[in-house]
């Protein structure tokens, strides 16, 4: 990771800024690839986790496919060099324009989330005379045991085709010569630390696989989605996700048919550890009950703590250890009380200008930033 020496070596360090450690990104992804290749699995990178062009360039070079959730992400993936036949497209609200974009690029598969969406894709495929490959997203009703905002695989969630609609979906595909059935798609949530969730997912997938098999429908691909969590408590270089155990579970519990391909869509576990948000202390305010360290970064640069009460490690890069440790609420400058990175964080005594790093911010950090309060554009640094 970045040491204070190499960060300070950055001339005229401007904050707030994201710094990305590209060697750590490459190391992380090579672990994921080695583990997945043991079983012949294919990984698509979930671009929504981080769409920084430099990050995409690295990931594309390593040979991953791309999982996109908008027409713009598809265009960006193509511009970044991802192969069009290795792009999948998910999302419950694909617009006509996005469907056309995906058809034009002849992507690997639409991950379809409703009957009506399937009909619309079919209509556009006929109009444009361009074939569309379809994977049906099934909601397996598996509890991801994660924050309820990022749980997607329960009956009460908006994702996926309902099970009683699957026969209708197969009929629509059969009736339209431009629609090809490519397989099944599942994704039960994100930041999943309890790996038994994936065992339960496998058991459900086996049941659905059997359901199609019994109807004589060939399922070329099973896409198991993403969701593997990272340990935000650890130092970034140690926050490598449990890729070995993750893929081993699928190898042990999934029962694919002969020639079935197994795909994944990983986001966070590939990119979270390589990014930190750098910020300087603007002011220290010693209140009656609390000390506040007010940073020049806020929820506009990293929304996760405000939105999900997510934990991110906060460090002072000028001085890591001190005899004089002080408890601070580390907050941002935005006019919202939720604009807080951490409460009662023990840190060396801070002063105006202290350089701070908020760790493990490479996933769902930059991409969820906003210009609320008309904030300035972010700055980026890369460790090559
Ligand atoms: N596939 C689908 C269909 C998804 O919806 C997602 C993430 C992924 C794959 C990638 O999941 P991952 O491997 O990154 O867990 N903003 C939240 C996370 C939202 C995840 C949305 N879907 C956060 O900051 O925690």
Automatic annotation (TrEMBL):
Family: Belongs to the Orn/Lys/Arg decarboxylase class-II family.
Species of provenance: Myroides guanonis
Location of the Orn/DAP/Arg decarboxylase 2 C-terminal domain: 18-362
Principal EC category: lyase
Pfam families, alphabetized: Orn_Arg_deC_N, Orn_DAP_Arg_deC
CDD domains the record matches: PLPDE_III_DapDC
EC number: 4.1.1.20
Example GO molecular function: diaminopimelate decarboxylase activity
GO terms (BP aspect): lysine biosynthetic process via diaminopimelate
Pathway connected to this protein: Amino-acid biosynthesis; L-lysine biosynthesis via DAP pathway; L-lysine from DL-2,6-diaminopimelate: step 1/1
Cofactor: pyridoxal 5'-phosphate
NCBIfam families linked to this entry: lysA
Enzymatic reactions: meso-2,6-diaminopimelate + H(+) = L-lysine + CO2
Domain Orn/DAP/Arg decarboxylase 2 N-terminal span(s) in chain numbering: 40-272
This protein's record includes keyword Repeat: no
Residues with PTM N6-(pyridoxal phosphate)lysine: 48
Residues at the catalytic site: 335 (proton donor)
Key words of the record: Amino-acid biosynthesis, Decarboxylase, Lyase, Lysine biosynthesis, Pyridoxal phosphate
Protein name: Diaminopimelate decarboxylase
